[in-house]
Design goal:
about 325 residues, eight-stranded parallel beta barrel, 10 strands, TIM Barrel, binds (3S,4R)-3-hydroxy-2-oxopiperidin-4-yl beta-D-xylopyranoside
Length: about 325
């Protein structure tokens, strides 16, 4: 079981006024190097970063994380190729024919997966393609709008051609439990496998909140996917808690958070084909949560000073 972490950079960091955490924070880099066997780019492999213009690919940010991982003997999880969010404006507001749009995605996948062939173990090929009701996000996702799920099958094929050894995933949030959304994935995965699409895994992000009950059917749900012959992973685990203006959490919530972390890890550990578990940030210093969910925070296993929280111990104990 690979234990991974999202490496900060881009996204909300770019807007925060912090220096680039990955580039400049030595203590942070040391934690990543020492505590994890896998890394994921938090933002640096998204279209927004790789594709400033239609003609250009900009790989420095992504390369730096991969070089770091290799220097530290870590594997890399690639995130992501086909998503509705963090796309450049030239893509979302451009006018393209169907053929042009399809060719753009094909070129993107061939170029990016091809560049890192043999160096990225897992790819989140398609991210967040269903809404919480299990309806395909055709409004928000320019590729799904034109081609529906057929483009997902194509994306898998293109990724597989570019790196036949890469393990190819669908990935989403709010799919920890059995429900409309995870059912939609189960149906789509069944269909894709039936037509021979190279789908190998299902990723459950795991953005949890102590304000909701723990998804106690997580393990059962993961097994629905391994029963199809897929592997599974928890890909973006964090557990946010209500915080005051100073970012402090109540002891009860800290206790609940600790419990949630331990149970999420235990669910993955219990499922033989749950092959990796990634934390969406390791320290509150850089977590995306406070910026994204006002009134919540303290969602990671290390505090702002990189000190261990009870959640860290819960994760370690559950492994
Ligand atoms: C988040 C990043 O953590 C932020 O830095 C960025 O501003 C927005 O995206 N699901 C995903 C991730 O698949 O890519 C998102 O990452 C969190 C939710």
């Amino acid at each position: 079981l690979a234990i991974g972490v999202a490496v900060a950079g881009g996204g909300h960091h770019a807007a925060s006024g912090y220096p680039d955490p990955f580039g400049e924070d030595e203590a942070y880099r040391d934690v990543i190097a020492e505590q994890f066997s896998s890394v994921t780019h938090e933002n640096q492999l998204k279209w927004e970063f790789l594709r400033p213009t239609r003609e250009e690919f900009r790989f420095e940010g992504a390369d730096a994380v991969i070089d770091f991982a290799e220097a530290n003997g870590q594997q890399v999880r690639g995130h992501t190729l086909l998503w509705h969010s963090q796309n450049p404006r030239w893509l979302t507001s451009g006018t393209f024919t169907d053929d042009e749009l399809r060719a753009l995605l094909q070129e993107h996948i061939a170029t990016v997966v091809g560049r890192y062939q043999g160096r990225i173990v897992h790819w989140d090929v398609a991210n967040e393609i269903f809404d919480d009701k299990g309806v395909l996000r055709t409004e928000e996702n320019p590729f799904l709008a034109r081609f529906g799920t057929a483009i997902v099958a194509d994306a898998l094929r293109w990724a597989h051609e570019a790196d036949p050894d890469a393990v190819l995933y669908l990935n989403d949030f709010n799919v920890e439990s059995i429900g409309a959304k995870s059912d939609a994935y189960l149906a789509l995965a069944t269909e894709l496998l039936a037509v021979g699409a190279p789908l190998h895994g299902f990723g459950v992000q795991g953005h949890l909140s102590t304000q909701y009950p723990f998804p106690s059917d997580l393990e059962t749900n993961l097994r629905r996917f391994t029963d199809l012959g897929l592997e599974v992973a928890i890909t973006e685990l964090d557990v946010r808690v209500p915080v005051d203006a100073a970012g402090r959490a109540e002891p009860d919530d800290v206790e609940k958070q600790t419990d949630y972390y331990g149970r999420a890890v235990a669910a993955c550990v219990a499922v033989e084909r749950c092959t990796s578990l990634t934390l969406w940030g390791v320290t509150d210093r850089y977590s995306w949560v406070p910026g994204w969910s006002p009134g919540e925070g303290a969602a990671t296993v290390l505090d702002e000073d990189l000190a261990v929280k009870p959640a860290f111990t819960a994760v370690a104990d559950a492994l």
